[in-house]
Amino acid sequence: PRERPLAGRHVLVTAGPTHEPIDPVRYIANRSSGRQGFAIAAALADLGAAVTLVAGPVTLATPPGVHRIDVVTAAEMAAAVAAALPADAAVMVAAVADWHVAAAPQKVKKGDKPPALVLAENPDILATLAQGLQRPRLVVGFAAETERVVEQATAKRIRKRADWIVANDVSGDVFGGEANTVHLVTADGVESWERLPKAAVARRLADRIAAALVLDPFD
Ligand code: C5P
């Protein structure tokens, strides 16, 4: 029989981009296909976890056995994450837009000059979760960086109070691609994984999450 070490555990995953409307027909967004996050949700479900996947706008099929909640904006994602608690672990893979636009209620018309976008900060969903009263026992964040990848991920782990940061170097062709090169940054140090298909990164991370939850002496 297949091992299901995460049976009875609830794991929350965010994936995909968020879209922040400029007006009813336009938006700003971060680049993200959602593939790494969906693969992680699938791998966790394979290990027996009850998975809640809060997904931004992507065109991907829901992995078998995964409970999916579709959202569009960062504010909606933050609300869906809060509503899905409690959870034993959370893996925040979404490429959340850092800002939203003071959106116009009607379509903005072309004029003499291009309109200025007024941006306001979005909530940091990972930092809010990691510092909240219902903090999951294991909080995993992602960091997409184009330079000084490990250094920035290490700082991000501390700043956001995450347990682990999965850092990926996005200076290459990772967006929408099949493979990923990641470094797992924990309190114990940095582990650099070889370039792997996103499904293999997902399986390895899911195995590590299972080990962390199951071996926890306070469990
Ligand atoms: O600060 P930065 O965007 O690089 O952090 C990336 C990590 O934080 C990812 O895990 C991402 O899902 C999460 N994040 C978030 N809410 C935001 C911004 C980032 O949950 N508003």
TrEMBL record:
> Is the keyword Magnesium in the record?
yes
- Which annotated residues bind CTP? D98, K107, P123, D124, I125, L126, F142, K156, K160
Needed cofactors, names only, are: Mg(2+); FMN
Q: Give the EC number(s) under which this enzyme is classified.
A: 4.1.1.36, 6.3.2.5
Q: In which pathway does it act?
A: Cofactor biosynthesis; coenzyme A biosynthesis; CoA from (R)-pantothenate: step 3/5; Cofactor biosynthesis; coenzyme A biosynthesis; CoA from (R)-pantothenate: step 2/5
Q: Name one GO molecular function term.
A: phosphopantothenate--cysteine ligase activity
Q: Where is the DNA/pantothenate metabolism flavoprotein C-terminal domain?
A: 6-211
Comment on bound cofactor: Binds 1 FMN per subunit.
Which family does the entry's similarity section mention? In the C-terminal section; belongs to the PPC synthetase family. In the N-terminal section; belongs to the HFCD (homo-oligomeric flavin containing Cys decarboxylase) superfamily.
What's this protein's function?
Catalyzes two sequential steps in the biosynthesis of coenzyme A. In the first step cysteine is conjugated to 4'-phosphopantothenate to form 4-phosphopantothenoylcysteine. In the second step the latter compound is decarboxylated to form 4'-phosphopantotheine.
What is the name of the protein in this document?
Coenzyme A biosynthesis bifunctional protein CoaBC
Whose protein is this, by species? Sphingomonas kyungheensis
Name of the coding gene: coaBC
